[in-house]
Amino acid sequence: MAPASNMDGVPEEAIKRGVKNLEEIGFNVEIHPSCKGSYKGTSGPPSERAKILMDSFREDSVDGIMCFWGGWNSNDILGFIDWSVLRENPKVFIGYSDITFLNTVIYEKAGLVNFQGPAFITFTHDFLMPWEIEVFKDVLMKPTPRYTLTASPTYIDDPLFFMHPEKPVEEKHNPGWKIINAGTAEGRLIGGHIGTFLTLTGTEYWPDLEGRLLFLEEDEGGNPKNFRRLFRQLDQIGALDIINGLLIGRVSNVAGLKDDLS
Question: Could you tell me the residue range of the domain that residue 133 belongs to?
């Protein structure tokens, strides 16, 4: 489903590859018709998008909900959701970027553990990194009480990979994590796309960050100046004083962000 932007601009062949790849992993895939809807840059009016989300949680034949991608304005629908519907019909929910709105508030309001992870668009290339498929399956399909997360061995730095499947993939070696402040920490994970997450400040949906492990990422449209501005906001609202740990995801090279945030 597409709680934010619709799937305009994604080639039909890419969509077919995404379905095929997910089916090969073991899923039965159904793309909700609203993914092709159009309303002010999104897939539909806020109340309709909220209803589709709630109906998907209610539907017994649905085991999991994967967002098509992120985009813009899934926060439109927050005020139209009956959180008790989600709480009483728990299902896997996964998405990233703008879906950070829903990842955060579903946990805070409905109390449901959900997943900041690959969206449908992630699976639309012919080449998928084997390790990413294994981690995806380990977390979603073979859950265990404890999971050890290690640095990925490789990565692909191509934000528009789904637009040119004929282009050879450049899989790069990952040098591993860069430690800014060494130590140990414990807490519940929360976070996602930094700009999206911070848009919740001052609203009833802003989460309690006391004792949390905050993880943040930035998309390819970001830039160093805005990233520093957002971190300054985190600092000025006191978030960095009350969290137990901070994790920052690798930012696409096109954003121009360096290790020192310059």
Answer: 12-140
Give 29-60 pLDDT, tens digit per residue.
Answer: 999 999 999 999 999 999 999 999 999 999 99
The dihedral of CA 117, 123, 125, 126: what is its sign? Answer: positive
Look up residue 227 and give its two tokens: 């990233």
Residue with the two structure tokens 């290339």: 125
Q: Is residue 68 part of a domain?
A: yes
Give yes or no for a contact between 89 and 106, defined as CB atoms under 8 angstroms apart.
no
Span 180-207, pLDDT tens digits: 999 999 999 999 999 999 999 999 999 9
**How many Cβ atoms from other residues are within 10 Å of residue 116's Cβ?**
20
What distances in angstroms separate CA 196 from CA 6, 31, 170, 241, one per listed residue?
18, 25, 29, 20
Q: Determine the residue type at 41.
A: G
34, 86: one domain = yes
The CATH number of whichever domain residue 45 belongs to comes to 3.40.50.10740
Across the beta sheet with 213-217, the strand order is: 189-193, 213-217, 245-248
Q: Is 240 left (phi over 0), alpha (psi -120 to 50) or beta?
A: alpha
Q: What does each C-alpha distance from 46 to 2, 43, 58, 78, 216 come to in angstroms?
A: 12, 9, 18, 8, 26
Q: Is residue 160 part of a domain?
A: no
